[in-house]
Amino acid sequence: MQCLYNKKMKILVTGGLGFIGSHTVVELQNEGFEVIAIDNLSNSSIDVLDGIERITGKKPLFENIDLRNKSAVENFFSKHQDISGVIHFAASKAVGESVENPLLYYENNVNSLVYLLQELQKKPEAHFIFSSSCTVYGQAEKMPITESAPIQTAMSPYGNTKQIGEEIITDVAKVTNINSILLRYFNPIGAHPSAEIGELPLGVPQNLVPFITQTAIGLREKLSVFGNDYPTPDGTAIRDYIHVVDLAKAHVIALQRLLNKQNSEKVETFNLGTGTGSSVLEVINAFEKVSNQKLNYQIVGRREGDVIEAYANTDKANTILGWKAQSTLEEALKSAWKWENKIRNK
Ligand code: WQD
After folding, report:
1. What is the pTM of this model?
2. Any atom of ligand 1 within 6 Å of the Cβ of 63
């Protein structure tokens, strides 16, 4: 594919020190882009910059910016007029917390997006990648889930902020020169194979895989499996677990599509998953295999708001983006386990 852009272009990654953000910074640098990461460090560590440098040999530019601060966003963009693309990860993402504290989520996830877009609309043209989620589908009727599956009423304020974000971007695209791609992630798991960066959940992990690895390493006494009475083969809920490096690579490909002006619409949407569903028990069994140790778990009641199953139809990303997840569930779990051992100095 002819490259219509100068690879030395500067790309802004918001939430660039976070789980998916940091892995995407690595892949952008691998592709030769200059990266500036911003993060308010509310759910990440400044040490991630060193981890990125140990992988790529280059520390990205970094500024501690809180996107809820409109003037800080304005000042940032007036200082960095040469930003060619934005990949927007910065957001709060804990489903349960969003139910307890909805205004934190609406302020952080929606206001930040508005302030970002207000700056991008000032540019002659802008290229914007938005971190969305399969949560917008709720419990989809049909598996695997395609991008044309109906958007259902959000099951949490977190999910609602993703739906609202997509709607804002779509409305803004109609009257500005902002070209966007919405990436709907399924379940990101794992860590960079170098174990120099990975997931750093603060406090008690909400998500399955970090809870598994923390239980296996002895930080947690046991894993609670939220329900085994679902209408699935083994009774536990099914999800599409995708390696975070596969996910990161998809962001670079999506950005290159916009920079190369290959997008067919002002707003394009892609599901990012493996296309394979795995149940909670299947994840546990796969983890026990790769870690070669038994996991201590108990079956408890269902968690409020969980869907029965969600896994992606990846045809659109495969054919239009030319992207396909490469890692297996076992490989992703192995990288998560290697990372857990690294950060606990085991
Ligand atoms: C996966 C499965 C749980 C923990 C959410 C958001 C999504 C994205 C990823 C941010 C479910 C079960 C979990 C545990 C368990 N968020 N589980 N015991 O809920 O599918 O997706 O996180 O990017 O947008 O919706 O992910 O990892 O929390 O749960 O049994 O201690 O594991 O019930 O079936 P989820 P999850």
Report:
1. 0.97
2. no
Q: Which residues pair with 312 in a beta bridge?
A: 145
To test the pocket of ligand 1, the residue of 135, 207, 240, 247 to mutate (highest count of ligand atoms within 8 Å of its CB) is: 207
Digitized pLDDT (tens) for each residue of the chain, 346 residues in all: 566 666 679 999 999 999 999 999 999 999 999 999 999 999 999 999 999 999 999 999 999 999 999 999 999 999 999 999 999 999 999 888 999 999 999 999 999 999 999 999 999 999 999 999 999 999 999 999 999 999 999 989 999 999 999 999 999 999 999 999 999 999 999 999 999 999 998 889 999 999 999 999 999 999 999 999 999 999 999 999 999 999 999 999 999 999 999 999 999 999 999 999 999 999 999 999 999 999 999 999 999 889 999 999 999 999 999 999 999 999 999 999 999 999 998 7
Contacts of 113 (CB under 8 A, 6+ apart): 88, 130, 165, 168, 169
Q: Are 333 and 190 in contact (CB under 8 A)?
A: yes
Does ligand 1 lie within 6 Å of residue 225's CB atom? yes
Strand, helix or coil for residue 305: coil
> Tokens standing for 290?
């790769």
Query: Which residues carry out catalysis?
Result: 158
Distance from C-alpha of 268 to C-alpha of 270, rounded to nearest angstrom: 7
Phi and psi based region of residue 224 (left: phi greater than 0; alpha: psi -120 to 50; beta: remaining) = beta
CA of 254 to the centre of ligand 1 (A): 25
